[in-house]
Amino acid sequence: MTPLTLTMQAFGPFAGSETIDFTALGNSPLFLINGPTGAGKSSILDAICFALYGQTTGNDRDAGQMRCDQAVDTLLTEVSLDFRLRDSAYRVRRVPQQERPKATGEGTTTQSAEAQLWRLTPEGEEDECLVARKVTDANSQLHALIGLDANQFRQVMVLPQGKFRELLLAESKDREKIFSQLFQTQIFQRIEERLRTQANQIERAVNDHRQHISGILAGGELESEAALAQELAALTPQVEQARQRFDTAQQQRRCAEQMLGEGQALQRQFEICDSLAAEKARHLEQQAQITAFQSRLTQSDHAQALRPYSTALVQAQQAFTATQEQQRQADAALAAQRISTEQAQHAFETARQRQTELPALRERHRQLGEFIHKGQQLSELEARWKTAQVAWQHADEALKRDEAQLDGIRQQGEALGAALEELQNEFQQLASAPVELSRHESLLTQRQELDELIRQGRELDAQQQQATQALKGRQREAEQAKRHTTEQEMRWHQGQAALLALTLEDEAPCPVCGSLEHPAPAVKHADIVTQDQVETARSAEERARHALQTAERQVHQLAQQLSYNAEQTQRLSHQLGAWASQPQVELQQACEQLRRQVGRHKHVQGEINRQNAARDERRRDWSALDKQLKAQRPQVEKAKEEALRLDSQCDQLRQSLPEDVRNPLVMRQTLIELDNQISEFEKNWESAQQALAETQTQQARAEEQLRSANQQLARNQQALEQAQAEWQTALQASSFESEAAFQAAQLEDNQRQDLARQVEEYQRRLAELDGALHNYHAQLAEKTLPDIAALTAQTKAAQAEENTQLEAWRSLDGRLKTLQGIGQKLTAAHTAQAELEAQYRVWGTLSEVANGRTGNRISLQRFVLGVLLDDVLIQASERLVRMSRGRYQLVRREDPSKGNKASGLELDVADTYTGKSRSVATLSGGESFMAALALALGLSDVVQAYAGGIQLDTLFIDEGFGSLDQDALDQAIAMLSELQMGGRMIGIISHVSELKEQMSVRVEVRASRLGSSVEVKGALL
Asked: Is Coiled coil one of the keywords (predicted)?
């Protein structure tokens, strides 16, 4: 960072607006900031530090306290700094928080702190605005650009008043922060952190596996793996025995259920037989009524026997005139009736034959009713079994799905692990890319510096030629001025002699020699030189002499610069090696390729982090799903047992049903068909009986009518008389006492048919009951009524025994499977733990070494920084030896610190007078200043040489020179001059008068009652 222009307004002691143009001091100047005490010399450094970081150099004053008391109220306190960093120029402007007058009205308002940052064009104009107002954004941007925070900036680029010993006396921890920023060694810290993180992860994984093994044993309620093996050996035969006992109990249960079913069927037969006997007894109770019906039918038959006589009498009285027509009609009706009678007889025979099938159909109807009841029970059990089967299938499918998901998660974890391993391998392959990029960028910077040095060398050579020519001219001018001055002095003396000669008198002593004789007095010329002319000549001679000295000093400086340029060119050529002769574009292409590798390295690192996060997420998912599966498996087993139990009950009920009646729909349809068939048979039988009786009666009537018609036709009148006589004879011969009794005994056809039907139904049902009772008595002749309660109790006991044996078998089998699973898990866990322990032996050792947990407790970064510090101390000691007249050298302390304190970067001073090394804290004030100055200069050299991304091309030193003697002061100034010729800007704040005499380029700070002001003197304008 090189300051270009600094503008301070109402800041510190500066009441107005003061601007310092550092570019006017020359290219890489060595200048003095001079002025009386309190004038504001240190405030210039405060302004630079405040512009960059919002803090003062000593950080003793708040930024809000930097307002000038002499400034007018309307003038805002602000600082603006233009600076160059690498190949770009920037402008930063800061305004601290302060009170200012209100824009309207009276009183004041608080002006908030603000900061702006711009990138400048090559012409110095504002180009891109990087920060608009926010102070924190400006702080972070400037920190990123410069690479140093405020404290580090104060320690390596500014040696504030009273603070120059801080870097010298800093502890290893603080010096490590500064050096890591300067040399960009964060990659080694990241290596330490990566190794530490990897080792910690592996160590945690080892501990987790140990706890996992303990958890596996604890989950199985086992004390050790030996107990697992012992229990497995004892449990295996017990499980087989329990399974055999369960098979035996299951067979016994099935036998008991079969016996219970047979007993229940036999009990139902006894119940049906008792029911039929009771129904027959109730049927016999109607015997008296049926006998009365039969007697009434007999009287009706007797009356029916007399009815032809009565009818013949009536017909005889009425049919005389219609005899022939009646005969013809009766003959036709008799023929038709005979045909109807034959048909009715055939239908009657058919119905009677079918009537014999009714008992078997009714028995079939009863059995189907029982089968339908069992079928309903079977349907209910099958529905429950299907529900249980579906529940089991769903639970089993869910379990298999979760197991598949668990396996998928495991496969994903393995895939992630494989991908992570590939990424880690690629990451390891690219691990050297940042270092190589840093090295190549350093080489590129060195190559650019080399090209710049070659260009500067050509410019310096041209300047040297011009300065040599100018020196020759100054020499001629000085010689001429000297000759002219000599001539003027001689002529002045001659003129004084002539004037004195005018005052000589004879015999009077000469005022010069005292002689009384004056043989050759000086002659007065017209152009006598005056004293003023002599002084003018002497002034011209003095100016020519100063000009000559300036030219000589410039030639000398250019010679030194050329020598330094040649040395730096040779050094850079040596450091670049083969790259010094190759085109710069090839080095740029190599850097660009390495930048792509570094970008890929960062991308791979981010991908590794994402893959690790994804793998951790898969592990959490696996753990949660594994717990869920452990809870699901007992539920699946329970659902399976319920489905198997219902399936067993369905099998038992199916066995009690014939194959052809197991379908409830078919059985119900068959039962409906049987009902219809039985109803049809009964209706057909009744219809056939009724039709036969009707046709027989009609046939008899037709025959009687035909006979009557024939008689009437043969006898005419005699028939009537004969009919009357026959009626009387028949009535007297009958069982009727009178004609009224005959009339009372007569029945209508429908009444007669109804009574005949009731008698027939009674007799038919009685025959059916007798037949059914005979069949059941024959079936149950040698059988006894079963004990259903005993059979039921026996079945329940068998079921309970089966359940007991099933639970015992399941419990032992579940324990065996659990122990076998635990054994498999333990085997896998031991394998994984062995792999982790092998990894930890590698990564743990690397982490302990890299993080400084062994030996002298020096971490990898501190070791690298120690090597860099050695380079810094070599450069610093060269300067300290010169300033201390060969007495002191800075060395790095080799002994480790006591306790747990970080070590490796402590400084000691080697005293050649005593031959011993001691702490730098034992140096006196002047010695400490020399050591701090030498350390700062050496640090600047090494950082510039390594080109680690931070450029220390500016150094400000605030006081400290007053503690040096003349010799040490001369040596310090000589070293600063050498550093300045190497392209550094050196600014010194001091009251030492010798510095003012030796340094012509100065920034004069003048104090007054109205505020301080700044003036640049000796600038190359």
From this structure: yes
